[in-house]
Design a protein that fits this description.
- Helices cover 58% and strands 8% of the residues.
- By secondary structure, the protein is mainly α.
- The protein has a domain at 82-146.
- A two-stranded parallel sheet has the order 1-2.
- Helix 6 (83-94) runs antiparallel to helix 7 (100-107) and helix 7 packs across helix 8.
- The protein is elongated.
- It starts with a strand and ends with a helix.
């Protein structure tokens, strides 16, 4: 059974500002086997800070624009939770956005292990539906070029 943690929004700030509890929250947020529930503070200062978190970091000089902030945040998230890379690669593969080899590369797995991950998730491995005639034509072109 997964451990469930109930936190208020200040727990997120501990990930970006070293203070008492930062180490504890860092280990909880990087644990892939737990569930984290975060409550909001309606009308409170913390909600205002979180709603403007990106603007605050950009104005503070940490980032030149929102895109660089989001890119960095996503990289940090994927480093902290490596299984998300695999899940993301599987989803992109399922909707035909990327090839099998690209999905394996994104997930950090070799192709055979990525195929196993697909099977475990119940995802059908896609096989190109190319007519035999077309394949034969391409083979003939290759042989003529040799």
């Amino acid at each position: 059974m997964k451990a469930t943690y109930f936190c208020d929004t200040s727990a997120i700030i501990k990930l970006y500002h070293a203070e008492i509890g930062t180490d504890c929250m860092g280990s909880i947020f990087s644990d892939n086997q737990c569930v984290i529930m975060i409550s909001g503070h309606k009308g409170g200062t913390m909600e205002t800070v979180l709603n403007k978190f990106d603007d605050i970091l950009i104005k503070a000089g940490g980032y030149s624009n929102k895109k660089s902030l989001i890119d960095d945040a996503l990289r940090a998230l994927l480093r902290a939770r490596p299984l998300l890379k695999q899940d993301m690669a599987i989803e992109l593969y399922k909707v035909h956005e990327i090839s099998l080899s690209r999905a394996a590369e994104i997930s950090g797995l070799d192709i055979e292990n990525f195929k196993e991950a697909l099977i475990e998730k119940g995802v059908r491995i896609q096989v190109a539906d190319i007519p035999v005639e077309e394949i034969n034509e391409e083979v003939e072109k290759i042989l003529e070029a040799i």
